[in-house]
Amino acid sequence: xxxxxxxxxxxxxxxxxxxxxxxxxxxxxxxxxxxxxxxxxxxxxxxxxxxxxxxxxxxxxxxxxxxxxxxxxxxxxxxxxxxxxxxxxxxxxxxxxxxxxxxxxxxxxxxxxxxxxxxxxxxxxxxxxxxxxxxxxxxxxxxxxxxxxxxxxxxxxxxxxxxxxxxxxxxxxxxxxxxxxxxxxxxxxxxxxxxxxxxxxxxxxxxxxxxxxxxxxxxxxxxxxxxxxxxxxxxxxxxxxxxxxxxxxxxxxxxxxxxxxxxxxxxxxxxxxx
Amino acid sequence: xxxxxxxxxxxxxxxxxxxxxxxxxxxxxxxxxxxxxxxxxxxxxxxxxxxxxxxxxxxxxxxxxxxxxxxxxxxxxxxxxxxxxxxxxxxxxxxxxxxxxxxxxxxxxxxxxxxxxxxxxxxxxxxxxxxxxxxxxxxxxxxxxxxxxxxxxxxxxxxxxxxxxxxxxxxxxxxxxxxxxxxxxxxxxxxxxxxxxxxxxxxxxxxxxxxxxxxxxxxxxxxxxxxxxxxxxxxxxxxxxxxxxxxxxxxxxxxxxxxxxxxxxxxxxxxxxx
Amino acid sequence: xxxxxxxxxxxxxxxxxxxxxxxxxxxxxxxxxxxxxxxxxxxxxxxxxxxxxxxxxxxxxxxxxxxxxxxxxxxxxxxxxxxxxxxxxxxxxxxxxxxxxxxxxxxxxxxxxxxxxxxxxxxxxxxxxxxxxxxxxxxxxxxxxxxxxxxxxxxxxxxxxxxxxxxxxxxxxxxxxxxxxxxxxxxxxxxxxxxxxxxxxxxxxxxxxxxxxxxxxxxxxxxxxxxxxxxxxxxxxxxxxxxxxxxxxxxxxxxxxxxxxxxxxxxxxxxxxx
Amino acid sequence: xxxxxxxxxxxxxxxxxxxxxxxxxxxxxxxxxxxxxxxxxxxxxxxxxxxxxxxxxxxxxxxxxxxxxxxxxxxxxxxxxxxxxxxxxxxxxxxxxxxxxxxxxxxxxxxxxxxxxxxxxxxxxxxxxxxxxxxxxxxxxxxxxxxxxxxxxxxxxxxxxxxxxxxxxxxxxxxxxxxxxxxxxxxxxxxxxxxxxxxxxxxxxxxxxxxxxxxxxxxxxxxxxxxxxxxxxxxxxxxxxxxxxxxxxxxxxxxxxxxxxxxxxxxxxxxxxx
Amino acid sequence: xxxxxxxxxxxxxxxxxxxxxxxxxxxxxxxxxxxxxxxxxxxxxxxxxxxxxxxxxxxxxxxxxxxxxxxxxxxxxxxxxxxxxxxxxxxxxxxxxxxxxxxxxxxxxxxxxxxxxxxxxxxxxxxxxxxxxxxxxxxxxxxxxxxxxxxxxxxxxxxxxxxxxxxxxxxxxxxxxxxxxxxxxxxxxxxxxxxxxxxxxxxxxxxxxxxxxxxxxxxxxxxxxxxxxxxxxxxxxxxxxxxxxxxxxxxxxxxxxxxxxxxxxxxxxxxxxx
Amino acid sequence: xxxxxxxxxxxxxxxxxxxxxxxxxxxxxxxxxxxxxxxxxxxxxxxxxxxxxxxxxxxxxxxxxxxxxxxxxxxxxxxxxxxxxxxxxxxxxxxxxxxxxxxxxxxxxxxxxxxxxxxxxxxxxxxxxxxxxxxxxxxxxxxxxxxxxxxxxxxxxxxxxxxxxxxxxxxxxxxxxxxxxxxxxxxxxxxxxxxxxxxxxxxxxxxxxxxxxxxxxxxxxxxxxxxxxxxxxxxxxxxxxxxxxxxxxxxxxxxxxxxxxxxxxxxxxxxxxx
Lengths: 274, 274, 274, 274, 274, 274
Known about the structure:
6 copies of one chain form a homohexamer. With 274 residues, chain A is mainly alpha-helical.
């Protein structure tokens, strides 16, 4: 169950409203690297977490935090849209540096939302909940979260580098710091689960005897003749999960050309296929 | 540039076609954990890879491999649909165990594709390319790939546990092994980039002095009064990136209730908001 | 800012797990009539609410409530999936009434989420955030909320009629009651804004002198010759907004056949169009 | 069955083509507040309307009208794209006011449609038919239609305020007037069904004895300690449906922390979860 | 402008309602091969048709026809859902042949639409308007229409083969015949435009001197060494557009390995990429 | 199975990077007319091709070619984004011609991909795999491919006309030529299958005696009284498939107004509908 206090988690201040920056901030709300994604992802992971309940609590706690981040960013979008042109005439005069302001905004922030934030990305594409990765496997979920917080922090850094509004920079410094923590936090959860050697390959509950072990630690090359395979840590030495030794070999087709036979009558194919 | 030889990477054999298993296999083709996703993800990561070219080559090599996996799975879907009912009458008699076969298939595999595979998931939802994570940051990309291969192997294991067709089990043992390798391979790439302490926080090119360091390694609690914060590796000790020390504290709102003021005339609001 | 206490808003109890009912419940989570929709809709309306702040607080309060409803339903889905078959063999024997259980589930609840809830609807389609209606007009928002709670309560009633599990019926009786309140609550907000005559037409800030008043209260008929126009409250008497009188008349085309002229060279048209 | 006469319902005239306004108009075609949505929504509501047939006829009649509105807007988009630049060079010289014209258009209107309209919104996102709300409950449908026409008229007003082209203003004055009528028309249908007290709570066919009446008219507070609940018409007095009395009380969790137990073997979880 | 007469274009009669067939019919409404698609496609093509107005009229005429087909199919879906179970208990007894009826329906037809049709496909996926192909090139549009009517007729034939309800077979015989006509009609339009030699390559307004003519009529082989290229009409003889001669040759990479250089500072990459 | 050699199929060279052109090129990657679409479409058609295997080989061969085209275009996008502004300040000074560069880019190319290509269209909308048309009918597939290559070449021509960068023009001349070949190639496949008279109506395996032949070659008019039907090759003469004679007649409704009766109790309708 969730509660609210109507206040912002961290102050949101905009000194020089910029509608183009409002558009960029939308990516941190409704982009696939954004805050709706992590908030909902942590919730659904929590609601499907079987086993030790501490992971459920950990996930719900951070989900609540992320809800507050969406709120901060939505407020920042609305504040950056203050003063944006509502008419085509208005926009020319309000545009001393030569760019037409309306060109650069998500039109829907004006037309659909009346100068407010929306759950869309920086090109106006609505967030799609298929991006909520919650696998029922606690280690995979933690890995997905490290990945989400990595792209999240990259995005926050790009936004930070884009603006020179002091209020926005301050807000983003907070969000970047939280992403630092969250990357570390989910990595810590993997360590709590035993670290890479205990955790991988995910799922660790599948007996490796029931995989085709000839191929479990082989880097296979799919180059045509005469092209070299790329070498690195992945081609040599003990595997990261500690359960095998990397090797490297070119691959060739082990199967035949498949043959699906003739089409069935009544299946809507051409007569020539029957 | 890509080439083909018309053959299958690994043999695909179905002893007892099962339309319901065809539906399940679709998840491995067009699901968010599926092979289209990794094939295209590795390609786009490669095409945006700046810096050391070996990562580009590594990514393209594995992309080519994954294309062959889609092909194997698409063949497996078509073979499992052999003999599926084309009519409502036919289905009753062909259904000794009591379940109506047509109930359990993705109807589109019959109606749209004529008993063949489609780029959709196991509930018939088309794959959406927003799931191609390619960030321009090589470490984040590797992390996204570990995550993708983790959910991919979980899915393959679930499919393996679902079927008892020997041909299908054999094919899945191969794919599970490849996912083992790929999890290790991308983890190896992170090690090649210096390991967790060099790589995190991602992006490592942002000076941490420019984040709000008060919040960089603090586990913040968002519980209402009287509820305990979840403890673990994340609440104590050196952070995983080696750059801070975890601490734990309850959070309270640092900002005020936001005030967007009155709506502007001509903005489509109600008069009462102006 | 949001908080949590890890507990459920209302008890969730399942006596006889039913995977098909789990599928149906998904509609109340990720369907367009579902709880993610209202939770996020009320948040975005709050974050764009200009004018009297009490509407912001009202919206955030109910958003927090709805988050707890998603949580209850996600728990209900997981509990209904307890004991669902993981294999094709298992399913036959576990299916005394003749239907193949796996046929009836959202396959992704098993394959992607490991027998847990997902942010998808009852056919496995992910929720899409374009359904978050937040217009920047407080009256339109309240109307959208009445509509959302109406379809929400219809859905809850259909689910209630579908199940005979006592625990599920109890949970749904709670949710149905909350939808009763929320329908009334948003209607009350419209009354607080002055009721239908003050509020409509939305937006009430547009001077009606600047619409084509010939057409403002006329029911226009688009039937071919000889077909009667449907009569009712809409064809006669004072309009509901109190600002006009309904009349009824057949419509005929007032414009000509449009002519876009020839295509431009270099525009990719056929030569014949130039 | 439908007929056409090739003519426009109302004249469409553009004096000064403006590609940026073409983009804005797209929202009224393919946006969620747009005309495709209402045209298709009224059709599907009609085709599922059980009970008194006059509602079916009413809906089909207005659907036919809305088809003509899409046609008008599509023509307006094409006329506004007349003269838009086809090349990057061309655009500089054609851009005296300083904004790069191509920046501001939906690129697809040029690249995909050759300077014509598309069924997409003002940011180029295709319309998605999940927005067709047709519930099988005639009262809920009427409410959804009031909501749709409310956001529709807000959008038309915003477009009206954006342009100063006399032809476009004239067309929009017609469309705004029709939205006035349609808001009133669907409200009139609710009155025909008995008005708020007869209609609500929707569906009115569910016996209220079978909801948890303790919660049917209570405004529940989800604030943390010390934060006040928002007061208004919703917290006091007779409910709008006339069937209860509003009251206000803080909410606390009535359920426990949920426990999904251990994961099942073969379900793809980590060993630690089993 | 469009008109209606409330009647069905052709009689729709269901003798033995079958909810599973209702689900299949949904594909013909909201599938990519369905009637919404062609109706809307022909409209948008008409509204963007520059040049000879007869194509606009032709397209609008057929669009009006297709609207009536959606109506017929929506009615057929509702009639096939008559008597479908509303409860889990009810479904067992109503299911003599052993399949659980609810398993086989689009759950949303019940939960969202109350036993009526929806603009979704046979797996419950909403139609997406990106499938409206309207290119601004009249010949390409005609070709897209031939393709649409081809998959449309395949679908209708598959539905015809699936059912043995006499009313449904009669309705489908009508729709199959109309698809025959429409395939021929759009092919006739291509002939009216001059036939394959005049029309191709599309667009015929681009001077072929400005393409790389070395590659205009060459079948390039992308096989690895030792695999033969597929031969046929495409590898030999005059090209279909009459403007070249087919030849066949293996392809090899003409470009180098691309090099995007180092990443820029501030671009969110890892330090190692700078 | 697929292979790669890391090289580009054809040289990709950009003399004057232009971020706006990068955005336009995205349409050729992730637009519905783009290269991902054809690459994946040809693969799925191949994997479902029953009957003569030469079509499978033909399709796979061209699929491999198209993968290389995506690669070329992705490289072109990245090269055109070289030097794009990363900050709002930077953009003003870098914008001599008056348009704000950031206005015109897909923001996600910067924020999500770090100045690289993405699988999205020119307005930032991700490619959706529902556009992969693979029907199980080889003739319908060939027709769909002609259509895809037609819109593909139109798009390439529009891009060619948009740019004056010599490198980009050279690359597009190659791609336009390949589209010429591919249009001819798929038309040749239709000829190989017997040409229009053998192939149509698709599917040719359905006995035409089982369609309602009264309507198979009739152009039906859906105009209201007094409006003429459009005449052309489609209204007179032998049909294109050689199996009938075109005629032309106005259509009138052959069915009645449908009646779905009363709603069922428990179906969530209003009492008035029962």
